[in-house]
Structure formats: structure tokens, C-alpha cells
């Protein structure tokens, strides 16, 4: 049975996997020319060394950090409220539809969420618990973990900085002074990546693929994080005929409406800061500078929203919360058992079976190319960009591309060319060749052309 655990990898996952197969020095060298820090690829590298490189290994690695995130969510819920609240928030976080998607994504999102959530736990323990030196050490390690996982962890640290200012001015000033020393230690630990961060930021500032977000985009992200992360209009609530993702959002609103907002207001404020702060910061930056506003980059804010939902409950809160967990569970089960990624395993097996000696395979550069999938599944197929077609943008993985990964002309010796694409067949034009056969696997297509 195919599930999201063993479904085919897609482009970004393939890029990470190909990179993680390299030596550690090469990983650092390549990733410093891309747009991310190196921690995910370093850990994936060792996972491949021990367990081999497969879809299940890739997804299991991500899932393990998802579970680590859930552990620290429980710790935060128990620290700020009660173990019962911690238990409820674990279920809400594990089943949150948007968060659930990236529990199986072979990229750095779940490892970032684990680092940020652990960082928040130790930070909150310092100011809301009896956290001493051990909490500060834990905070240092977890925060560096988060920062070396994804650059967007900086926005979580920024929200911690806002709260630190409050504590320094009118709160636990002595604790705030000790935390400031910890900030300096974290800065020292991040020094090795400061120059790569500068070059990566400069590169993104020169042009990126994201458009300027609107107020509607802001609201959409909030709703996705709260309940609508998996939109399946075919999955509807009986009788009412409402899509489950919409019903789940209504239940979230009901849970928030009956929450005792006046109870533990200080704790609620810092959770709101964690949830909304990074979203607001990236939205504002995207208005004046290069847009960086993208939902998967900020998913580490979801646990804060789930903690708010599960805490300061009224007597009737258990009704909408139970309904919400059930709705989340149904949505997730449907997603888990109905993989949505392109079927590249099946596709690559077919291509290998029909490829003859002397055939030349190419990736057609449509709205996206599939170089990383073809490399992962062992199909040699460079990207075809005709002479005068320009260069590829850096954000499609050019830092990892080798000299032979892009071709400008089809070799004259190629009597038959196989085209790999998920774009429309009508856009393909290879002078001197005519279409002979098309085989489709969903949106994936393999087209054979004869000279």
C-alpha cells in the first residue's frame, strides 16, 4: 500500500537527498551557495550512511523530528498550564493538517520546528519556571539547532527578543540579564555561518520567486495554520455538505470563543507573540523588500496556536476540542492514504524499461524541471535549454548542478530522444524531431521523438 511514507520524492526532496549523499565538506560547500543552513543535510547524510537512501528513510527522518516537536509541545503545555493541557495540545499539534503534511516532507521544515519548539520550551522555562543554568544551556543548544536548520528561525528568536525586552524593563530583570549573556553565546555559536548567511541573503535579495503578499494572503496563512492546511473539497461533513477543512475552521473559532482569555493572560500573550509575530514580521518585510512570505517557512508557529486552543479551557471547551481532533484525524487519514506527489517511482521504472541503447533522455524545462527526481531514481537526463534560452534562476538548485546537467543542443548522434516533463506536450519543440509516442503517469509524461 502506498502512503505518504513511501510515495515518490519530489524535486526539493530530491535536491536535498542528492546533496546529502555527498561528503560533509561538499555538503557545506554546496549549501553555502544555495539558500539554507546545513543541519538537515548533515543529519540526512548520516541517516543515508546507516540506513541507505530511500523514500521511507527520508520520510522517517522528518517524522522523527515531528515527534520531537510534539514532545516539547507537551512540555510547554504542561509547564504553562497543566499536563492535561499538554496532552490535548499534543493531539492538536500532531493532527494539525498543515503540520501533518510536513511531518513527511524530506526537507528541513520538521527539524526547524523541533529546534524552535525546544528553544521556546527552554526560554519559557527560564521566565515561567525554575529554569537555571540547565535551561540556559538547553536554550542555547536548541536555538542554534533551529538557526542551523532554517534561516526563518531568526523570526522566532526575534519574538523571544521582544519578550526579553518586556522582562528586562518590567519583569524578571535578573533573569533577563542572564538570558542576554545566552544571546551572546548563541551569536558566537552562529558566527561560522554569518558570511554564508550574508551571501545567501544577498542572493535572495537579487530576485526570488515569491510575489508580494496581500492582506488576503496573510489571512489565508492564519487559516491554513489553524485548520485549513489540507483542502479537500470532496471530503465533506454529512448532511451539512460542508468541506471538512471549513468545518474544522469553524470549530476552531468556536473553541476560541469559549476560551477563558482573561485567565493566564501573560502566558497567552507570549503564545500569541510566538504564533503571530513571525508571520507579521515576514509579511511586513515582504512589502518593502524582496518577498519571503511563504507558509511552509513559518510552520513552527503552529504549536503556539494549538497551545492557545488547548489552554485556559472553559467547561464546554472539551466539546469543540474533541470535535476538532476528530475532524483533523479524518482529514489526515485521507491525506496519508492518498498520496498526491507525482508517481516518479513507477514512472522511472517505465522509462528504464523502454529506453534503448543510443536513446538520449532530456528534462524539458517547463514551469519546473525534474532533474533531481531523475537523478535520485537513476535516470540520466540533463535539462534541455536551447541556445539563447538564458540561465536558470538560483532557486531551482543551480548550486548543486554539475557541468553536464544542462545542455543547449541535442547530440547529432541521437536518433531518438525521450522527453521527461510534467508540462503540456504542446509546448515541446525540438527542431528536426517528430513526436512518436506519449506515455502519461498523471501529470508526468514521457514523450519519444524520432529524428
Automatic annotation (TrEMBL):
A molecular function (GO) term: pentosyltransferase activity
Membrane spanning residue stretches: 63-81, 87-104, 111-128, 148-166, 178-198, 242-262, 269-286, 292-311, 318-336
Main location, first listed in the record: membrane
Compartments where located: Cell membrane
Keyword Membrane: yes
Record keywords, A-Z: Cell membrane, Glycosyltransferase, Membrane, Transferase, Transmembrane, Transmembrane helix
InterPro entries linked: LipidA_mod_glycosyltrf_83
GO biological process, one term: lipopolysaccharide biosynthetic process
Membrane topology (UniProt): Multi-pass membrane protein
A GO CC term attached to the entry: plasma membrane
Protein name, as recorded: Uncharacterized protein
Amino acid at each position: 500500500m502506498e502512503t505518504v511514507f513511501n510515495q515518490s520524492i519530489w524535486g526539493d526532496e530530491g535536491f536535498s537527498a542528492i546533496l546529502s549523499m555527498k561528503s560533509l565538506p561538499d555538503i557545506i560547500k554546496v549549501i553555502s551557495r544555495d539558500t539554507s543552513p546545513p543541519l538537515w543535510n548533515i543529519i540526512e547524510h548520516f541517516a543515508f550512511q546507516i540506513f541507505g537512501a530511500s523514500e521511507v528513510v527520508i520520510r522517517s527522518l522528518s517524522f522523527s523530528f515531528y515527534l520531537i516537536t510534539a514532545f516539547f509541545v507537551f512540555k510547554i503545555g504542561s509547564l504553562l498550564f497543566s499536563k492535561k493541557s499538554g496532552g490535548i495540545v499534543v493531539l492538536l499539534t500532531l493532527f494539525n493538517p498543515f503540520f501533518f503534511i510536513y511531518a513527511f516532507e524530506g526537507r528541513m521544515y520538521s527539524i526547524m520546528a523541533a529546534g524552535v519548539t525546544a528553544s521556546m520550551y527552554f526560554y519559557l522555562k527560564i521566565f515561567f519556571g525554575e529554569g537555571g543554568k540547565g535551561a540556559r544551556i538547553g536554550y542555547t543548544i536548541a536555538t542554534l539547532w533551529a538557526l542551523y536548520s532554517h534561516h526563518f528561525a531568526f523570526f522566532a528568536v526575534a519574538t523571544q527578543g521582544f519578550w526579553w525586552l518586556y522582562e528586562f524593563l518590567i519583569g524578571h530583570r535578573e533573569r533577563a540579564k542572564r538570558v542576554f549573556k545566552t544571546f551572546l553565546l548563541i551569536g558566537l555559536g552562529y558566527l561560522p555561518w554569518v558570511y554564508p548567511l550574508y551571501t545567501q541573503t544577498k542572493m535572495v535579495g537579487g530576485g526570488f520567486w515569491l510575489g508580494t503578499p496581500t492582506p488576503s494572503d496573510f489571512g489565508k496563512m492564519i487559516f491554513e495554520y489553524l485548520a485549513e492546511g489540507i483542502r479537500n473539497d470532496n471530503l465533506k461533513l454529512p448532511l451539512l455538505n460542508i468541506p471538512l477543512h471549513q468545518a474544522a475552521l469553524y470549530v476552531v473559532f468556536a473553541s476560541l470563543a469559549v476560551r477563558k482569555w482573561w485567565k493566564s493572560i501573560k502566558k497567552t500573550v507570549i503564545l500569541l507573540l510566538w504564533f503571530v509575530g513571525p508571520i507579521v514580521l515576514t509579511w511586513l518585510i515582504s512589502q518593502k523588500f524582496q518577498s519571503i512570505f511563504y507558509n511552509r517557512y513559518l510552520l513552527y508557529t503552529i504549536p503556539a496556536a494549538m497551545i492557545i486552543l488547548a489552554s485556559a479551557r472553559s467547561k464546554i471547551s472539551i466539546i469543540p476540542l474533541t470535535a476538532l481532533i476528530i475532524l483533523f484525524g479524518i482529514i489526515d487519514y485521507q491525506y496519508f492514504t492518498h498520496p498526491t506527489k507525482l508517481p516518479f517511482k513507477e514512472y522511472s521504472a517505465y522509462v528504464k524499461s523502454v529506453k534503448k541503447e543510443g536513446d538520449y533522455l532530456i528534462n524539458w524545462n517547463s514551469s519546473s524541471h525534474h532533474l533531481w527526481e531523475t537523478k535520485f531514481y537513476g535516470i540520466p537526463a540533463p535539462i534541455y535549454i536551447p541556445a539563447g534560452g538564458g540561465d536558470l534562476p538560483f532557486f531551482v538548485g543551480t548550486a548543486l548542478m554539475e557541468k553536464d546537467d544542462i545542455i543547449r543542443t541535442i547530440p547529432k548522434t541521437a536518433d531518438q530522444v525521450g522527453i521527461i516533463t510534467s508540462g503540456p506536450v504542446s509546448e515541446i519543440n525540438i527542431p528536426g524531431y517528430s513526436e512518436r509516442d506519449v506515455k502519461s503517469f498523471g501529470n508526468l509524461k514521457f514523450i519519444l521523438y524520432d529524428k
